[in-house]
Amino acid sequence: MAKRLVVVGGVAGGASAAAKAKRVNPNLQVDVFEKGGYVSYGACGLPYYIGGTVEKKEKLIIRTPKQFEGQGINVHLKSEVKGIDVDKGEISVLHSPEGKKEVYPFDSLVIATGAVPVKPSIPGVGLKGVYTLRHFSHGVDIRNDLEAGEVKKVVILGGGFIGCEVAEAFRNWELEVFMVKESQKVLRDFDDVVSRVAKEVLEGHGVTILTGCHVDSLIGRDRVEAVVVDGERLKADLVVISKGIRPNVELAVQAGIALGPHGGIATNERVETNIPGIFAAGDCAETLHFLTGEPYYKPLGTTANKLGRVAGTNAAGGDAVFKGVLGTTVIRIFQTGLAKTGFTEAELEGRGIPYETSTIVARDRAHYYPGGGRFTVKLNWERETGKLLGGSMVGPGPSVLRIDALAVALYSGLTVEDLARQDFAYSPPFSPVWDPLLVAANRALRD
Amino acid sequence: MAKRLVVVGGVAGGASAAAKAKRVNPNLQVDVFEKGGYVSYGACGLPYYIGGTVEKKEKLIIRTPKQFEGQGINVHLKSEVKGIDVDKGEISVLHSPEGKKEVYPFDSLVIATGAVPVKPSIPGVGLKGVYTLRHFSHGVDIRNDLEAGEVKKVVILGGGFIGCEVAEAFRNWELEVFMVKESQKVLRDFDDVVSRVAKEVLEGHGVTILTGCHVDSLIGRDRVEAVVVDGERLKADLVVISKGIRPNVELAVQAGIALGPHGGIATNERVETNIPGIFAAGDCAETLHFLTGEPYYKPLGTTANKLGRVAGTNAAGGDAVFKGVLGTTVIRIFQTGLAKTGFTEAELEGRGIPYETSTIVARDRAHYYPGGGRFTVKLNWERETGKLLGGSMVGPGPSVLRIDALAVALYSGLTVEDLARQDFAYSPPFSPVWDPLLVAANRALRD
User: Which of chain A's ends, N or C, has fewer CB atoms near its CB within 10 Å?
Assistant: First the structure.
């Protein structure tokens, strides 16, 4: 039984692991080391803080170090773990701002070092006013810039989750917003039908999207003044880079911990690495895909929290397993919800799985009930068996929570025929008498 | 193969059966006989027409007789089927207003006679201004009364679905609304936690609810003027009776068609009655409970439409089955959504099934995202196996569409442990990082 658990990183996966471990084994000494100045905050809320929907940054804090200490967990802020000695069972830590280096022993370890934003290696990325959005401080800095009132034009490089969410945030401030993309697709992890709507919605709300572009450089004296796109200057008072993230694995690699095929820390069902007693959870780690059991990298807050709990349980001497994820994802852009679960067409093609697909457009509520909107459902299923393998939805706001029903169907191995038999809820303000998912299933059956 | 299909009743089940049968077999002659003046309307929309949310009554029409005729279906309005001769394969019909009686042969028959509202046998129920809400004309009459401007006080007898929905509709008109109930519970088909909230919400919006009351009589000269409750006069300019409905089976009984234990027409998986070639769909018929296979009576629009399709397919010579319902139900009262699926505690007790239950209250979105509300989840599961048997939800508006995910879980035979493993969608405006359903599952596991 472990006596001292060390957790490296204190945001989603790390905070969950620490809290869970202490509940499982109250006698365990738990120490959390966090490089930054905050633990356990809602990183997914940063775009809403930037946009002003969340008024005060303090709102984003889930648990303060004090609350952790009330649970008997020691939190070390501004304490960067510089090395892990697997054989000795020790970590070396650099405490800021004093610059003091110390060594701490551990019996079990949870690595939750998160991810780092991908930054293109072009001139000018180091200028002031050029941001990624990953840490609490990034969100605070961007909002401070906006509040200072000097920002009129914003350029977003890339169109992933963060890119779309901050585009909305900046439009809240009535700024001129450009999104510059090398590829043609916004939200390219989604199926085309979703990407298309995402683009339409952004453009419909005044975001200018330039696709198929190459960014040459960012220019400015001290602070960014323009982005050079295919040789042309695009004025910019603020730039956000949204080119995705990569798992932060430096520490793990140095310690001899194995990585998986996607570059994240490899873990098994127990969320344990190749070294017994060392676990990895959150955006630094790979997990498993529920449908295939293959290693899968899906850095999302909800996955991080779940993996953290399992890691914490096992690190405290308990016994928990994690069967994998389906890659369920939802985003709201302005008032439109966009969601997916399971495999997209591109993912199925990449895996050589023979599939069928169909897409329907229905309404999200009874035709006579005012305020309704179009609701799109796309289903992907295995050609031979009819087994559901993935799906997408687009609709007004929370109506896309229907994706959860499809996620359960995928988990349960249901076929399109099973889906057509579901007894879904019906009430005119919430759904048509034939729920869009049933319409989609019937269409898939050519029925 | 059937040559002539007769459908008795043209609203939900009947309209679906006719349309589907014609698609399955375009050579089939399809005749729909409807007693009333409208076919294929959204009966579930009547409360919203009364309340003014749906402005024009024409909006509720799904398909006009003309549209049916465009599909090659003959629609006979104001044509009451008075008898079915099973041996001869004939029905006798009374056409209004001419009063002409005619006989029509059939090769296959779908009975979709719907249900009739339960009316208490107390003096005065026949007075003007005393309504049930079942047919299109009822909704029109009530709204006309409201528009005439003489109605100030309304009394609703009973607190089922219709009672709750019209209470809201009348409050939209800023009327004084009383709900008088013999029992203690509003929405008594739901688990207590839902009934309690329904009562609170109604009361919070100015509806006065009197429970444990006995209604002695309705009084008035020509039009209702008061309801006498436990000897006391309660002034009323309009009364709505919402005491539930009973299946309309007179015609079937006369024809020798067997009923089930709940008084509805007994049907099998093919939605066929005890007489081959005669089907019954919608509120007049019993169906099966998916979890137990037992006969079950759940008169809902969505069930009626589904059963109608299956009946239509089979009546046209096709081959379809219906595996039963879970009793999934959702209602919106003012801005609150209330939902259930599967068995309530009372239903489990009535069946002698050993079960466990737990209830949690979470938030419907990230704690920092403004405008969120409380979200209640109750789970009922089999004691020995952990298999999910039912659940309830209460939350802001469409957030309760999460009930569909639970419905799929029930269909798939998932346990509480399975539910805790679901990969649900997460985005701050739509859900907390731990979805309320996951919180409920973890609580159920005492985890």
Answer: N
* pLDDT at residue B2, rounded to an integer: 53
- CB contacts < 8 A (A, B): 216
Query: What DSSP string runs through A341-361?
Result: EE--HHHHHHHT--EEEEEEE
Q: Tell me the residue type at A36.
A: G
Categorize the per-residue pLDDT at A409 as very low, low, confident or very high, splitting at 50, 70 and 90: very high
B390 contact residues in A (CB cutoff 8 A): none
Cα–Cα distance measured from residue B445 to residue B421, given in angstroms and rounded to the nearest whole number: 12
User: Angle, to 10 degrees, between the axis of helix A403-411 and the axis of helix B403-411?
Assistant: 20
Judge whether A307 and A285 are in contact, CB under 8 Å. yes
Tokens standing for B11?
């609203």
The residue behind tokens 């309404």 is A363
Q: Helix, strand, or coil here: A149?
A: coil
Neighbours of A174 (CB within 10 A): 9
Nearest-angstrom CA–CA distance, A244 and A339: 18
Partner-chain contact A330 B425, CB within 8 Å? yes
List C-alpha distances in Å: B48 to B234, B292, B340: 26, 35, 22
CB atoms within 10 A of CB B26: 11
Residue type, A236: A
Q: What is the pLDDT of residue A222?
A: 96
Cα dihedral sign, B151-B153-B157-B160 = positive
C-alpha span between A29 and A107 (Å, rounded): 10
Burial A151-168 (b: 16+ CB within 10 A, else e): bebbbbbbbbbbbbbbbb
Chain B residues near residue A397 by CB distance under 8 angstroms: 398, 429-430
pTM over 0.90? The answer is: yes
Please report, as a single letter, which amino acid is at residue A70.
G
Residue A42 reports pLDDT greater than 90: no
What DSSP state is assigned to residue A11?
S
Q: What is the mean pLDDT of each run of 10 residues along chain B (447 residues)?
A: 87 94 96 91 93 94 90 96 97 94 97 94 96 93 96 96 96 98 93 97 98 96 97 97 95 97 97 97 96 95 94 96 96 97 98 98 95 96 98 96 98 98 96 96 90
User: How many Cα atoms sit within 13 Å of A234 on the Cβ side?
Assistant: 26
Residues in B touching A425 (Cβ below 8 Å): 328-330, 339, 341, 400-401, 403-404, 407
Per-residue pLDDT tens digits for B154-190: 999 999 999 999 999 999 999 999 999 999 999 999 9
CA B272 – CA B287 distance, rounded (Å) = 10
Instruction: Locate B101 and state its tokens.
Output: 């009686």
Q: Which of A60, A370, A397 sits opposite B53 (nearest CB)?
A: A370
Give the domains, in start order, of chain A with CATH numbers. Answer: 4-115+246-315 (3.50.50.60), 119-243 (3.50.50.60), 329-446 (3.50.50.60)
Give CA–CA dist A390/A328, Å, rounded: 9
> Does the beta-carbon distance from B404 to A400 stay under 8 Å?
no
CB-based contact B424:A328 (threshold 8 Å): yes
Tokens 């008072």 sit at which residue? Answer: A237
Whether residue A38 contacts residue A136, with contact meaning beta carbons closer than 8 Å, is answered with: yes
Cα–Cα distance, A48 to A60 (Å, whole number): 10
> What residue ranges in A123-205 does DSSP mark as E strands?
130-131, 153-157, 176-180
Q: How far is B207 from chain A (nearest CA, A)?
A: 21
Of B327, B425, B437, the CB nearest to A328: B425
Q: In angstroms, rounded to a whole number, what is the distance separating the alpha carbons of residues B211 and B229?
A: 11
CB contact under 8 A, B431 and A399: no
Q: Which of B53, B290, B429 sits opposite A423 (nearest CB)?
A: B290
